[in-house]
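Build the 3D complex.
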Amino acid sequence: MNDLVPDATPLLRAEGIVKQFGSVVALNGLSMELRAGEVLGLLGDNGAGKSTLLKILTGYMQPDEGTVRLDGEVVRFRDVQHARSLGIDIIYQDLALVDQLSIVQNIFLNRESTTSGPIKVLRRRAMRREAEILIKRVGVNLPSLDQPVGTLSGGQRAAVAIARVVQTNARVLLLDEPLAAVGVREAGIVIDVVRNLRAEGVSVIVILHNYGHVIDLCERFYIVRGGEIAEEGRIEGHTSESLIAAVLATRL
Amino acid sequence: MAKDPRASVLASPPTLGARLIKSPHAKSFGEFLFRYREVSLLVVALCLGTYFQIMTGKLLSGANLLNLSQIMAPIAMLACPMVLLIAGGEIDLSVGQTFALAPFLVHFGQQAGIPLVLADILAVVIVSLVGVINGVVTVYIGVPSFVTTLGTFFGINGLTLIISNAEPVPTPGTGLYAMVFGQNWSLILWAVAALAIFHFILKHMRWGLYCVAIGGNYETSKEAGIKVERIKIGNFIFPAAVAGFAGILDSVTVNITDPLAGGSAIMFSAISAVVIGGTALAGGFGTVIGAFIGAAVLALLQDGLSLQGVNANAFSLILGIAILSVMILNVTLSRQLLGRKRA
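Done.
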């Protein structure tokens, strides 16, 4: 793990991020960094500000104060597409699928391939062909790509969400509790895929509530409390119990 | 790449769910119906047509077919853009009132010396503002669209009554203008154009896909970066504009510009056509073709019952019973054909 040299330029760095919702301070000057090629765990209680941080890092929200640096350069994400175009993508807890849309439509949601010209027509067959390849790469057998996602099992749904990210060739993947809604067997599939993505050079920030999964997946962790980083460290040497103790200790 | 990093995933067998679902290539007739829900409604429409033709012998006569088309066309025109709105999870109750307002705007425009076609365009643009108001109040202020459009429903009705003094006026326009904009068969041709345009938008363009996505899962659509506000407001503008245009055409057809034209009757007919056609009232699924056939079913019932000489007082009662029976038949039929799949 010599890629964890602390003084290397971090891939993604947040500095002094402040975000308020009315009178509620969600993030209170939080600073953190993601290094190239690592899987970073964000731990902490509900309402600590972890999800808000991820939303800022993907351009879904703009911070009230503070800066985000990508490869050392200050970036200000205008919106989700902007962050995505810079190689940052996210999978939400609910996998962000529209149950009524087909597998193909979900994989290409808001990145549809269309004809050029004044009237842009969806290239449905081309998207279907590409979706077939992506689903094969993720390695899950799906009944029909025209089937609504609502008819799929938890693992199949996760596969669709992952195929969607694979399609964007993301450099940074953010995962907001990706294992909250899937069964044990399917959690194993998701963990394998995350490891494989990292092997391909994708850096990952993940929010997990199962500390066993944190030990399995992550190299480094931050404990978030009250919108600030309360503790950071390397996973090496930690057990689930010691992580839980660390999260609980920060409450005091 | 030395080795496929997803090897471990590829090595694991498909999940249980994947194996339980049978091959997508084997399709039963029930599955065919499930994919094309419009088919069972078309069967119902054909049965109704056959029934009224046998009972009255007049349904398929040229004069009556024209009459039938003129009953159906305004309903269909209002229903087609409404599919996008309802699939996107909203509703517009005010379309019957923009339908009545637009021809008066044309009337006043013509009196002010504006050429008729230009007056038509101006009238459609002005009633489109009703859609903008509906959209902005619903999307940005957060008033439920049912309430927003109920407000504009009354407001626009009042406006029409005030500017018209509650008096009908003759519709301007003769000759080629009238032939293109409403007389005889032109009305149903405009309805077919609306069908083609909105079907294309719904099934072949991003806009339609996003309507379904927003109606199915608003938050996810927003998180995916879809400009949900823009789509929703646009979805309110389409029905307002098309309803205004349909009102202008209809005023030419009947050759009178009536402040009491359209109203809640045509609004409810259009929304019924949308829902009968198979569009989910809660959003997430829409079919313009279904709505068009739905409009045909409603028009067939109205026209067929008049041909049978149903008493004017009993008309609504019988129409209501007929609509309920037809829909019970349609739902039962498709469930029977689908077997347990839909459960």
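Chain B is about 75% helix and 0% strand.
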